[in-house]
TrEMBL record:
Record family assignment: Belongs to the class-II pyridoxal-phosphate-dependent aminotransferase family.
UniProt modified residues of type N6-(pyridoxal phosphate)lysine: 233
Protein name, entry field: Aromatic amino acid aminotransferase
First-level EC class: transferase
DNA repair is among the record's keywords: no
Record's keyword terms, sorted: Aminotransferase, Pyridoxal phosphate, Transferase
GO MF annotation: an example: pyridoxal phosphate binding
Recorded catalytic activity of this chain's protein: an aromatic L-alpha-amino acid + 2-oxoglutarate = an aromatic oxo-acid + L-glutamate
GO annotation, biological process: L-histidine biosynthetic process
Encoding gene, per UniProt annotation: pat
């Protein structure tokens, strides 16, 4: 190597790009002789797509043409399913795509150089800090309480003149608890109406607590509420990238202006429509997973674990320093789970055999 100084490249990304946390996607499990490998690391639906959905995809041959950018038939179907005007629905490439629209339109760096602020709970969905900082806005993470619930009082206390958006994740990924309707309405009463409140309800179909907030019931009465939903989890369409937001027209108008054109392919739109036409089958599968969740939760309690209540398709084990050790033990049994630093481990509810194997590993770490 020459001792010459390397020239500083003149082409540099915006300084914020170097500061972004890395999104650590869930990995497949290591191969282990004699064991089927299972991935419980990305909260995916373990069940294969409905045959009706596969047939719809197989029939869609016109991929030389751009998709309908407004996804009109899908929005009409969603409007019917949710009981809302189709115009209140804006689709995106996954609900992450829909979240990026919201942040691009409502938060960022301003002409005076001062960044807007976006408040969210932490730990929560790993994508939030990346999406928020990319817009140029300043992230304001507010630690969750010991039981994994949002600290709503602390989130109110974090509001400043710069606050533009607050994200509530219910059920919260990765800790599990959902917010109640009373909690969210009480919160909204304290949030100035010029601040946008995003309710991320990616796991809404898995919720069984009747007190849980339903953003679709709320947004009509609150002009500053946007609800995020996805077909990635309950519908098992994670790979097709289809999600959406629901909000009042004065918001959707801005979201459509910033949306990436053609973000949702015709394959994804058709699959989503057919999945919604077969919603009874989708919900029956969700119920199977909820039954599995109940079995896993009961068994963990039996083993002596103390962990947050979960309303999603995953459980959170607050393993602290032992988190990486637990993930390694699972991997040695051909099971991939998600360790978040030295905070805890999130394990998705998957195939029955995978859940049973997870419980066997958990038993070794219990108490
Ligand atoms: C999985 C997940 C999403 C969904 O992402 P898509 O882009 O729709 O696949 C959104 N929010 C949370 C909290 C999630 O866990």
């Amino acid at each position: 190597m020459s001792s010459e100084e390397k020239p500083v490249p003149s082409l540099r990304p915006r300084p914020v790009v170097d500061r972004l946390p890395r999104y650590a996607a869930g990995k497949p499990a290591s191969a282990v002789d004699g064991l089927d490998a299972f991935k419980l690391a990305s909260n995916e639906n373990p069940l294969p797509p409905l045959p009706e959905v596969l047939a719809a995809i197989a029939e869609q041959a016109a991929i030389n043409r751009y998709p309908d950018s407004l996804a009109t038939p899908l929005r009409e179907k969603l409007g019917e399913y949710l009981g809302v005007p189709a115009d209140d629905v804006v689709t995106g490439a996954g609900s992450l795509g829909a979240l990026v629209q919201i942040l691009s339109a409502f938060a960022g760096q301003n002409d005076d150089g001062r960044p807007d602020e976006v408040i969210y709970a932490w730990r929560s969905f790993e994508a939030y800090p990346i999406c928020v900082q990319t817009t140029g806005a300043a992230p304001v993470p507010v630690p969750v309480l010991g039981d994994g619930r949002h600290d709503l009082d602390a989130m109110i206390a974090a509001i400043t003149d710069q606050t533009k958006v607050i994200i509530l994740c219910t059920p919260n990924n990765p800790t599990g608890p959902a917010l109640t309707r009373a909690e969210v309405e009480g919160f909204l009463a304290r949030v100035p109406s010029h601040i946008l409140l995003v309710l991320d309800e990616a796991y809404t179909e898995f919720v069984r607590d009747p007190e849980t907030v339903n953003g679709i019931d709320l947004y009509r009465n609150y002009p500053n509420v946007v609800v995020l939903r996805t077909l990635s989890k309950a519908h098992g369409l994670a790979n097709l990238r289809v999600g959406y937001s629901v909000s009042q027209p004065h918001i959707t108008e801005s979201l459509r202006l910033v949306a990436t054109p053609f973000a949702v392919s015709t394959l994804a739109q058709d699959a989503a429509v057919v999945s919604l036409e077969n919603i009874d089958k989708v919900l029956a599968r969700v119920e199977e997973l909820v039954q599995e969740r109940n079995r896993v939760v009961a068994a963990l309690k039996e083993q002596g674990w103390d962990f947050p209540e979960t309303q999603g398709n995953f459980v959170w084990l607050p393993l602290g320093e032992r988190s990486p050790e637990f993930a390694a033990a699972a991997d040695s049994q051909a099971l991939s789970v998600r360790a978040f630093g030295t905070e805890g481990v999130r394990v998705s509810i998957g195939e029955v055999e995978a859940n049973t194997r997870f419980l066997e590993i958990a038993k070794e770490f219990a108490g």
